[in-house]
């Protein structure tokens, strides 16, 4: 039976569907209806922002260690519901169950890390240049935070925002991807019940992109939103950034990627292939950190390509509840868009990796497919060799199971190619040469670098984020995300009983500059 979900504002489910309704099928079994979504509209978003704003003062008055304890209890409740939440994710977006379980574990890890941050929201005492005067710094919450997240990681990525925002004393209006509404609703319930959150501290808005933007615009204009966090495409991120900038706000933007993997002559090729397979085709290539282009030295190009082709052909693809590398596309819109990316394969390219290109069907089969390909939106993995630096396949993020391959002659060229697309999220290098490692680290524009590891993967205590077309330099996860959800306040306390003017009434010690040995 399909789950019915709707927006929740100030602890109450929003009646009706002012934004229309959405019926969400299982993308791996499209005949099965998973979720019926009652969508809100711009007014719903603004109402939720108002509820968050109204609840914020009482929430910040809850002592920070108590808020941290609430986060810890949320982690324990998520842990107790780990298998069920993962299955909801797999049913709704077709992510393989093993990956979905890993995604839920990431929520638990994030809660475990931030449990202690409620006791570590440190400021500093700073020495004054005046006697009988003390200087202090404090971390204050931003206020009411709007969080807008994508659906490819429907529960892990939202936790990167929700957990630090709540522990630092902010309240939240959260707008998840509407095609992952059941996963979002389940996570909302776990947060509210696990943390004992008062009404209005966390609000859930289910709406489409157009209504969300209009609601955000109205909320910013009304002074109801003090910070915006957005995970999604570069195109939409630019619009969000411009809107926030017009209100003198700096959003947290985590956007797309065209992530390179450099393979050097000294690389362990089997390891490099294993990394390329997972980061290129895991989640059907529908990650911001998915591998975009392999940049392989010409001396090992032929060998690497043969191994990569063989590994791709041998990979199990299909039913997400089975042991597979990847399942279906997340949603019909991504399937349609992916087919436009396949149109970028040109005559100077050669394709490898599967028995066909495009959608897997009885007429376009994939050897060893797991399950019924006609039941869902499944696509062949595609390796495209001969990619040039002016190709669309090289320059633009391709959200789907397609990986480009190009070659380089000298290491400087490899670094240049790794940056040439203008994104800067994640980059990997496979080598046994320490000099190449450090040269690549200095030269890459990516916010995250992997050595002999994949472009995909994050840990709860390491900063996550990109530069260029991949983001505005903001970082999530670990202690670094605190700078996104707090602002520094300084305080001076003069207890001398007289007015002391900085830079004017400062005592000085007289040196004897004429002294010589």
From TrEMBL:
Its EC number is 1.2.1.3. The keyword Cytoplasm does not apply. Keywords: NAD, Oxidoreductase. Residues 21-490 form the Aldehyde dehydrogenase domain. The active site is at 254. PROSITE patterns: ALDEHYDE_DEHYDR_GLU. It comes from the Bacteria. It holds the Pfam family Aldedh. The keyword Nucleus does not apply. One of its GO terms (molecular function) is aldehyde dehydrogenase (NAD+) activity. Homotetramer. Belongs to the aldehyde dehydrogenase family. This is aldehyde dehydrogenase (NAD(+)).
């Amino acid at each position: 039976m399909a789950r019915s979900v709707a927006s929740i504002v100030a602890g109450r489910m929003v009646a009706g569907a002012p934004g229309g309704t959405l019926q969400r099928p299982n993308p791996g079994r499209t005949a099965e209806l998973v979720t019926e979504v009652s969508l809100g509209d711009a007014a719903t978003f603004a109402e939720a922002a108002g509820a968050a704003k109204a609840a914020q003062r009482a929430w910040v008055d809850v002592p920070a260690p108590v808020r941290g304890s609430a986060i810890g209890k949320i982690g324990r409740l998520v842990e107790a519901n780990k298998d069920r939440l993962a299955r909801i994710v797999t049913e709704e977006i077709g992510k393989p169950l093993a990956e979905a379980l890993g995604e839920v574990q990431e929520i638990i890890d994030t809660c475990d890390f931030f449990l202690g941050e409620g006791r570590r929201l440190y400021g500093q005492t700073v020495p004054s240049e005046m006697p009988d005067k003390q200087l202090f710094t404090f971390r204050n919450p931003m206020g009411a935070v709007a969080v807008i997240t994508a659906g490819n990681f429907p529960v892990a990525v939202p936790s990167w925002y929700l957990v630090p925002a709540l522990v630092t004393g902010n309240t939240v209006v959260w707008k998840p991807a509407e095609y992952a509404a059941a996963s979002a609703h389940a996570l909302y319930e776990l947060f509210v019940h696990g943390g004992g959150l008062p009404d209005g501290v966390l609000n859930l808005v289910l709406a489409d992109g157009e209504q969300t933007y209009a609601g955000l615009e109205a909320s910013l204009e009304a002074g109801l939103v003090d910070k915006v966090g957005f995970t999604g495409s570069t195109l939409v991120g630019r619009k969000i950034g411009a809107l926030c900038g017009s209100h003198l706000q700096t959003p947290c933007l985590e956007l797309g990627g065209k992530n390179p993997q450099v393979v050097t002559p000294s690389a362990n090729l089997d390891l490099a292939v294993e990394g390329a397979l997972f980061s290129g085709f895991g989640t059907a290539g529908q990650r911001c950190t998915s591998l975009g282009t392999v940049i392989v030295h010409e001396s090992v190009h032929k060998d690497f390509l043969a191994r990569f082709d063989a590994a791709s052909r041998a990979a199990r693809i299909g039913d997400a509840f089975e042991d597979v590398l990847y399942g279906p596309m997340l949603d019909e819109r991504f399937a349609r868009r992916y087919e436009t990316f396949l149109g970028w394969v040109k005559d100077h390219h050669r394709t490898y990796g599967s028995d066909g290109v495009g959608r897997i069907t009885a007429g376009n089969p994939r050897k060893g497919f797991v399950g019924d390909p006609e039941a869902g939106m499944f696509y062949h993995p595609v390796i495209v060799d001969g990619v040039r630096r002016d190709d669309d396949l090289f320059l633009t993020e391709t959200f789907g199971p397609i990986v480009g391959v190009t070659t380089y002659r000298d290491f400087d060229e490899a670094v240049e190619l790794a940056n040439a697309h203008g994104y800067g999220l994640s980059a990997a290098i496979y080598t046994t040469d320490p000099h190449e490692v450090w040269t690549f680290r200095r030269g890459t524009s990516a916010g995250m670098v992997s050595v002999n590891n994949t472009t995909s993967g994050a840990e709860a205590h390491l900063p996550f984020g990109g530069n260029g077309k991949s983001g505005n330099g903001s970082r999530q996860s670990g202690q670094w995300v605190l700078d996104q959800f707090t602002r520094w306040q300084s305080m001076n306390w003069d207890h001398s009983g007289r007015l002391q003017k900085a830079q004017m009434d400062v005592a000085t010690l007289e040196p004897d500059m004429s002294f010589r040995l």
